[in-house]
Amino acid sequence: MYRIVATDMDETFLAFDHTVPQANVDAILRMREQGVLFVPASGRAYGSIMGSLRDLPPACLEGSYVISYNGGCINRVGEDEPLVCNRIAFQTVEALFDYAVFAGDLGMHIYGTDGTVWGWNLTDSEVAYLDGHMDIQQFEGDSIAFLRDVPLSKCLYVYEDLDLLHELELAMDPQLTQGLSTTFSSGRYYEFNPAGVDKGAGLRALAELLDVPLAQTIACGDSANDIAMIEAAGVGVTVSNATPDAMAAASYHARSCCTDGVFAEVWERFIAPQAHA
In whole angstroms, how far apart are CA 216 and each of 3, 174, 198, 254, 274? Predict the structure, then answer.
């Protein structure tokens, strides 16, 4: 019996235009009737995730949880204070920022534990991509000293060419990422989290908190930052628009893309059979 369905947000649960397909809403409501928890799991902050889900019927998220910051934080729905929250050292973020300044053509997001996101050197295209699903405070200059005493959860580089970001990973001084968990997402982000933090660790922590065996969990994703969660779950699902590395990790490749509403297929393939057993 499956008891948790965790899902990435952007390009998995949300359509390409950042809206929620109605097929997903209908499937979640059927899942909740069977006692299955719907758990969003994103690299974004809790508040940003909840903002994207503000139009869902309350029953979809009632009594559930949110995994944010790529597994760095876990919140009970309706509570801003996280149950679990990992931090990244300011000195680590500062070194990565200094490298971005040196590189010249990178943008950057820096995430506070309170959900504030600061953006540096963002292109008009990136600002348009974020519009409507994530608020960001843009700043200028070549220093982040103003964040020295601010608790931070993660940061990332922005460049709208994933191949070049992979090349950057190989070219960077390894000391810059020493002790960090790194991943890629949305075809434009190279992400830096505290050591040991990923969506798989977040799912394992939530399953332990709720006393749910991992075999009774399903995880849906589309990108590299979803792989750890896909591999940790009892069933790992990728949407049809997933990257090849994410697909290679999954045990089930959905026919549906994010715009179709993959939860309808998850319901039919995995949850409905147990409902009728």
Answer: 6, 38, 19, 19, 12
* pLDDT tens column, 19-52: 999 999 999 999 999 999 999 999 999 999 999 9
- pLDDT for residue 275 is more than 90: no
Mean predicted confidence (pLDDT) in 207-213? 97
pLDDT at 134: 87
Check: CB of residue 32 under 8 Å from CB of residue 2: no
**Residues 176, 43: Cα–Cα separation, whole Å:** 20
**φ/ψ bin of 20: left (φ > 0), alpha (ψ from -120 to 50), beta (otherwise):** beta
CA torsion 219-222-185-165 (nearest 10°) is 140
Torsion region of 123: left, alpha or beta (phi above 0 gives left; psi -120 to 50 gives alpha): beta
Per 3-state DSSP, the chain is made up of helix, strand and coil in percentages (nearest 5) of 40, 25, 35
170 Cβ contact partners less than 8 Å away, ≥ 6 residues apart: none
pLDDT of residue 277: 60
- Reported in sequence order, the residue ranges of 44-143 that DSSP labels E, i.e. its strands, are 65-68, 73-76, 84-85, 107-112, 117-120, 137-139
What pTM does this model have? 0.86
Tokens at 10, concatenated? 């952007």
Eight-class DSSP state of 197: -
Average pLDDT over residues 164-188: 94
Q: Which of 220, 271, 272, 212 is nearest to 250 (CA)?
A: 220
What is the H or E stretch that residue 201 is in? helix 199-209
